[in-house]
Every structure is written in structure tokens, then in C-alpha cells.
């Protein structure tokens, strides 16, 4: 596995690592993000395309944060774009509240690598233009895990999502109101019902429709999302044979079939 600057143009693979990347979460139990309009205003201040282009060198995509069981679960650009990149809408929404401008907020994050640190800088700048006055609190990785992942002690969390390997590990554990990892404290009976329905649905198309409804509900309510979900670039030497990787759900059996032509 190499960086984009080292890849072999004859042998390379771009692999979307759903569930891996930069997540933003708003704490619905803390002022000012106990107000849905303020959460939506923060989203409208942000431009995921800029984050992807400038912090992730284009090797990322927008998602809801959970691992995907099928490519048909990926969000269409038209479904998420209307919630973002509208500073005018953000300022207008904030002016309808009694918070006053700018709105003071604290971002909790940590140094998980160059992409994450640069993303935080861009997010701070974008929120500032949207009527917020963000202060960044960089924690150690241990503190970040304890404060953000476990305790939910944040206004805005910006960093990797809680480690999980299956869709329901996130859908039921993080997004469900009663999930053990629901650190932003949201309560939503309608969303809970969708999450429970998809978990027991065996028909692939019906489950896909539930997933699409869940993705829209998350955005409508302004809970959490991944503006940059990682795309890994793999490359290999020309003498490597039968390299047909399948990384979904931690699959690794394909390595047994790889061989080297000397």
C-alpha cells in the first residue's frame, strides 16, 4: 500500500473504505446544538468538497459514517449537497435565534494524521464564515477517545468515528437513541424505527430503501456525518499475479491466491 505519489499507473486500485475517515458530530444535549436550526446552520457553513480536495487530496467521498454492505448504499451527491455550502442560509438561520452573532462553539479533535489536522483548520475557517466563532481544543488521542467517543463531552466532535466493522455496529450502536455509542445524545423515535426495520430486513432492495431514509434523516436532523470518507490507493509490481482484493467486512481470504511470477 503506497501513497498517491508512488503508485504504478499500470497496476492500481482505488478502494473506498466506508466507515473510515473524518466524522463531524454535533452534541444535541449542549447549547447551541440542542437547536436543530443551529446544527443545520453549521452544516450549511461547511463545504465537504473543499475538505476532500484540500485536506484529503481528492481521495475521499461523502458518507453517513457507517460501513456499507453494498455500493448501492452510497449516497448520491444530489441527496447530500443541498445541506451544505450555503453560508447565506447559515447566517440567516442563526439570526432567527436569540444566540447573537457570532455563536461561540468549541471543536474537540486530535492529531490522527495530516488529513485530520488540515480538515480541522478548514472546518474552523468555514464555520467562521457561517456566523460561528469556533475554538479548537486539540486533545491527545487517549483524551479524545475518553472525552468524545466514550463520555460525549463535546459541542462539536471532529475526528475518526468510533471503531466499528459492520453496518449495524454503527447503525444500532451509534445512531439508535438507545445505542451504547450514541454520544451526541439525540432521541428520535422515527429514526429508531427505521434502524430497527433495516436490521431485520433480508430483502436487499427493501433494506437499501431503509438505509436511504436513514441517511436523509441524519442530515435533516443535523446529527453527524462524514464529510471525508477515506479512499485508499493500492499498487503492486508487475510480477504480482491474481491480486484481486476484496476488503469489505475485513475479508482477507484473497491473499491466499496471490502469487509472484519470478
Polypeptide structure, described:
The chain has 262 residues and is of the alpha/beta class. It contains 9 helices and 8 strands. The protein has helices at residues 36-45, 48-55, 77-80, 87-95, 114-129, 141-150, 167-175, 189-199, 204-221; strands at 12-26, 60-63, 103-110, 132-139, 156-159, 224-235, 240-241, 259-260. Strands 2-6-1-5-3-4 form a 6-stranded mixed β-sheet. It has a two-stranded antiparallel ribbon with strand order 7-8. The longest helix is centred in the C-terminal third of the chain and has 18 residues, at 204-221. The chain is globular and about 70 Å long.
Layout of helices and strands:
Layout: E1 12-26, H1 36-45, H2 48-55, E2 60-63, H3 77-80, H4 87-95, E3 103-110, H5 114-129, E4 132-139, H6 141-150, E5 156-159, H7 167-175, H8 189-199, H9 204-221, E6 224-235, E7 240-241, E8 259-260
Helix pairs in contact: 1-4, 2-5, 7-8, 8-9
